[in-house]
Amino acid sequence: MDRRTFGKLLGAGAMGVASLAEAAWPAQPWGVQLFTVLEPLERDFDGALREVAAIGYKEVETIGSFGRDPAAVRATFEKYGLRSPSQHLAPPSLYAAFSAWARRETTTEGVRAAYSAAFTPQTVMPLVEQAVVSAKALGQTYVIWPILLEAHLADRARLDTFIALFNQAGALCRREGLVFAFHNHDREFRRFGDDVILDLILKGTDPALVKFELDFYWASKAGVDPVAYFTRYADRFRACHVKDMKPDRDFAAVGDGVLPIAALISAARRSGVRHFYVEYDRSNDPLAEIRKSYGYLQRLRI
């Protein structure tokens, strides 16, 4: 499946947006989700960030504070002219699993088990309270809930419990001058009866308290038109993960896959998205992948 074919699958909305003149848009400060370069960060934190900045990225999204002192992390960002608008929640105990994964000392299943242990209805508010502290130290605006696992979505009652807690987390973040948001994978596009799970989360959370980060890859892999979500839920999305997909549905560097990236970015901007983070979930050479992705985005001139 090529990019043109995929664009047709997205529907007329995406193609219409793609046809609009984009020259008026200001230069976009492209960002990167630093999970992508986790292995280089674990080898040489300072050196990896220096390389990220040298590529041209201006914004970075963190995994908590990488198990480090957030003030020290922020100082390193500032040294290289980087700013961090957002973080995915990751308390030190969870980040330890990420660190072990980067060193090939645990498996992806091991990281999921760590997520499952750390992310429960009972821990939502304590996790968010901790994240608020680190986000303020990092100079961030957004605290993002990164994942709901299969067990979290086992039935409607469990989902409703998390929805209620997300509203509480959103109220807490607003009181602290921050914004709470939710990041999707593909499983949120399954259904409970006639209702799509992500729609239930969108409709069940207060628009004034809870925003969203849409992942281009996971939405598209689920067979969903991301543009339809930007249109239907205007002003709910504040960030996106800019990821491409190979014809075999594996991950691809941005521009190397079949997704209509320019159309998706244009639709996202019109919906209120302010931050765009390149991400590549699994790569043997992540710095090369984000360099290639950045070059493609720069050539779009959007």
Structural notes for this entry:
- By secondary structure, the protein is α/β, with parallel strands linked by helices.
- It has a single domain (3-18, 28-297), classed as TIM Barrel (Alpha-Beta Barrel).
- 49% of the residues lie in helices and 16% in strands.
- It contains 14 helices and 12 strands.
- The chain has helices at 3-10, 12-19, 38-43, 45-55, 70-79, 92-102, 108-118, 124-138, 156-175, 197-204, 216-221, 226-232, 261-271, 286-300; strands at 31-33, 59-63, 83-88, 142-145, 179-183, 191-192, 195-196, 210-215, 237-242, 244-245, 251-252, 275-278.
- The strands form 3 sheets. An 8-stranded parallel beta barrel has the order 1-2-3-4-5-8-9-12, surrounded by 5 helices.
- Helix 2 (12-19) crosses helix 13 and helix 8 (124-138) packs parallel to helix 9.
- The longest helix is centred in the middle third of the chain and has 20 residues, at 156-175.
Structural class: alpha/beta
If helices are DSSP runs of H or I spanning 4 or more residues, what is the number of helices? 14
Mean pLDDT: 92
Helix content: 40-55%
Share of β-strand residues: 15-25%
Gross morphology? globular
Q: And the CATH topology?
A: TIM Barrel
**Topology as H/E string?**
HHEHHEHEHHHEHEEEHEHHEEEHEH
Low-confidence stretches: 7-25
Radius of gyration: 18 Å
Number of strands: 12
**End-to-end C-alpha gap:** 25 Å
The number of domains is 1
CATH superfamily: Divalent-metal-dependent TIM barrel enzymes
Strand arrangement, major sheet: 1-2-3-4-5-8-9-12
Assigned CATH architecture: Alpha-Beta Barrel
